[in-house]
Write a structure and sequence with these properties.
The protein has one domain: Protein Transport Mog1p, Chain A. It has four helices and ten strands. β6 and β7 form a beta hairpin. This is DUF1795 domain-containing protein.
Length: 202
């Protein structure tokens, strides 16, 4: 998700326990959840000191997704110096994670065309491989982001028979090590909870 920073958000001080859609995990210091209150602050921010850096159309979609509980979004606030807010978005999908070797190869061959159609730009995968997410099947992709000098890492993890979670991190190349550490901590600390919940910070 492409978002330019505005300086609206404060920084979390410690590792944060989070949960979203049946997945519990932690994020390092500096990562924080995007809330409805912060989105409203962005919408109301019109001064020269805090320019509204998210396009109105994207802001409206974000507000709808976050307010309705359809998506959880987390920002790496120390990356504000790049002019781009590195972020992780999590939302459920009915797509199934391929598990056999043949199925993984087939999906990895098909994904560049499918993603290119969805995003209306040429997508070439730098990575497409199976991974384990808290004991559940997962698929990890990597490709160049839509914003200048950004990269995307996507992980799809099978939550149950009907639902998987799509975890998408978009980060600026100047902060890749810092933000990759956040995604790695999310994945290594992840555990599935019995009752899927809306995004929250315990």
């Amino acid at each position: 998700m492409c978002v330019v920073t505005t300086g609206v958000w404060a920084t979390e001080q410690d590792d944060q326990q989070q949960s979203a859609f049946g997945l519990r995990f932690s994020l390092p210091e500096g990562w924080m959840a995007l809330t409805s209150t912060q989105l409203n602050s962005l919408r109301e921010s019109t001064s020269a000191d805090t320019p509204l850096a998210i396009p109105d159309a994207l802001l409206s979609r974000l507000m709808e997704a976050v307010n309705s509980g359809q998506m959880a979004v987390y920002f790496n606030t120390p990356t504000n110096g790049t002019g781009f807010a590195d972020n992780i978005a999590i939302y459920p999908t009915s797509d199934a994670v391929p598990e056999t070797r043949d199925a993984i190869r087939r999906v990895c061959r098909q994904l560049p065309e499918l993603l290119s159609q969805q995003m209306k730009r040429n997508i070439q995968l730098n990575q497409c491989r199976s991974i384990d997410v808290a004991g559940h099947a997962g698929l990890q992709l990597a490709y160049i982001g839509g914003a200048k000098r950004t990269q995307v890492i996507q992980v799809m993890a099978q939550r149950d028979e009907e639902t998987s979670l799509l975890v998408t991190m978009t980060y600026h190349q100047d902060s890749d090590r810092n933000s990759k550490r956040g995604l790695q901590q999310l994945l290594t600390s992840a555990e599935w909870v019995a009752e899927p919940t809306s995004p929250q910070s315990p």
